Amino acid sequence: MNQKNKISSKETTTRYIFYSRYYAKTIGRIKYPAFVPDKNGETSVFRISNLDDQQIWDIGENHVSPYSSRTLLARGDLAALDIFDEGLEIEADTTNHKLHANIVGWPLELAKIKLHATNLAKKAICHIKP
Amino acid sequence: MPALNLTISNPFVKGSTDNKSDQPYWAYFADFLSSLINKKTNQATDWASDLEGTIDWTDFALETLDEIYEECSGANWDEYNAQPISREKYSEASKLLRMLPNSFPVPDILPEPDGGIGLEWYQDKDFSFAISITGKNIITYVGQFGKNNQIYGTETFTDSVSDVILNGLKRLFSQ
User: Fold this and answer.
1) The pLDDT value given to residue B2
2) Fewer CB within 10 Å: C terminus or N terminus of chain B?
3) Per-residue pLDDT tens digits for A32-62
């Protein structure tokens, strides 16, 4: 069953990046399209509070990469509070993994979506896959 | 290209350093290094300003756009169910890139999960300007000109780049 629960503002989330143009390795930044939602209005993230760095990469490698034809390259860590500050919400979606969630509540207006994605990207902390 | 015109005083040869005879030798050496660094820095800046606005980056940008179209014309190219970039959006992006003044730096061309094509000019996290080509001759824009100073909106894209876009870019690069 697809459980959808709102999560705490004290949590941290991460967005795994598989596409090389979505981050700048040299200056360590995530670019805004990495947070633009999919056609269902969802941006897939994982809840990573209380996990160490290796555990966070392991989730990406073992639970996301197997479904991907691309290599896991980087991730953008983002405080849940930063997401809520944009007026967006996070819903747990544990269908395939107990720590999976989606950023939801995106506006319909495209310019506003890009504005929120830009703000999330600038607050995200970029980690390059070792 | 300006000629490199360095006056080098050897700090280890007495009599070649004029009125600095009271300084210890290490100070001459420090001055010498400092002058070298300053000359190099100034010269690099001069070259950059000479070239500013004169590099035609259009061909480079169009090549990048072609690469992105090839990478992203199928579904799910980002592994998160991204929509393919359509021929229509590719053509509009190509048209816009040809119309943008080369006096601005070349933008970072970014495919977007909703099938749009973004052009981003990034200076730092609080100073950037991005356009999204969303199809049907509509573009959206987001500009950041410092903390808590953002603009965003939608423009119709026809046969010229709108003043809103040009003014946004001017504003970004006049910071």
Assistant:
1) 41
2) N
3) 999 999 999 999 999 999 999 999 999 999 9
Tokens representing B55 are 């590099």
The answer, yes or no, to whether residue B24 has pLDDT greater than 80, is no
ipTM: 0.90
CA distance B80 to chain A (A): 7
Residue type at B26?
Answer: W
Neighbours of B165 (CB within 10 A): 22
Strand partners, A113: none
Which residues touch A108 (CB under 8 Å, ≥6 apart)? none
CB A51 within 8 A of CB A57: no
Give the predicted TM-score (pTM) of the model.
0.80
Chain B window 94-113: which residues touch A at a Cβ cutoff of 8 Å? 108, 110-113
| Helix ranges restricted to H, B16-80 | 25-51, 58-72
Cross-chain residue pair A118–B130, CB shorter than 8 Å: yes
Q: What does pLDDT average to over chain B?
A: 77
C-alpha angle B30-B33-B35 in degrees, rounded to nearest 5:
110
Give the minimum alpha-carbon distance from B105 to chain A in angstroms, rounded to a whole number: 17
DSSP code per residue over A47-83 = E-TT--HHHHHHHIIIIIGGG-SS---EEEEEEHHHH
B166 CB neighbour count, 10 Å cutoff = 14
